[in-house]
Specification:
Blueprint lengths: L10 H13 L12 H13 L10 H12 L1 E5 L6 H7 L4 H7 L13 E5 L12 H14 L4 E7 L5 E6 L23 H16 L1
Antiparallel strand pairs: 1-2, 3-4
């Protein structure tokens, strides 16, 4: 992710504003313009998370934001933990944790074992969409739903990877295709709608 500061513009600023709004640090419009209101919200976030309070979104601030971008965090099992308690602490469900960690024994958790804990939405619905954000979302979905098979089946004319997601093993095979003809996708593009409404819905229903 690029470093953002006052007067930065674009989809990454929209993503930042959307995250800060969801976390309660920002109350302005999601307009992709890094103004003083966004600057102040970033400082509040940095202060609460023990970061350098400079209002600049560099690597450390992006790293602190990444769990909220990806919709999951990692957690190390401690003595006495249960999946129910972990799910309650992160406002998620036991089923979501089990989907993300098919290797764990829910009745016999191993101390010091690191697990994935999904706790939020992955695909943003209120920002412009780019190939970079799409890749972040796909990688997060692959982590939370490890049964997904993610691959790159070619490259676009701009040299970006064309992603494919496969899941299920039924007798019928269905192919859904989507595309965009711009460097940047807005949230009404067919690619975005198929990804957000179709794939994520099916993953949750699995």
């Amino acid at each position: 992710m690029n470093t953002l500061r006052l007067n930065s513009r674009g989809p990454e600023v929209e993503l930042l504003q959307s995250l800060l709004l969801k976390l309660g640090f920002y109350t302005g419009a999601i307009d992709g313009i890094y103004g003083f209101q966004t600057f102040s919200a970033v400082q509040k976030f940095q202060r609460q998370f023990g970061l350098s309070v400079d209002g600049i979104v560099g690597a450390n601030t992006w790293n602190a934001l990444m769990p909220y971008i990806n919709g999951y965090t990692t957690y190390t099992i401690k003595q006495g933990d249960t999946l129910y308690e972990i799910a309650r602490n992160f406002s998620t469900t036991v089923d979501a944790i089990i989907y993300a960690n098919p290797q764990i024994d829910a009745d016999n958790l191993s101390i010091d074992q690191e697990i994935i804990v999904p706790f939020g939405n992955i695909v943003p619905t209120n920002i412009s969409y780019t190939s970079q954000i799409l890749d972040l979302n796909i990688n997060a979905l692959k982590t939370i739903y490890p049964f997904l098979e993610v691959s790159t089946i070619g490259t676009s004319v701009l040299g970006r990877g064309i992603r494919a997601i496969k899941f299920g093993n039924g007798q019928k095979e269905v192919l859904y295709c989507a595309s965009t003809h711009r460097k940047r996708m807005d949230y009404n593009s067919i690619t975005y709608e198929i990804f957000r409404k179709f794939i994520k819905k099916l993953c949750k229903q699995r």
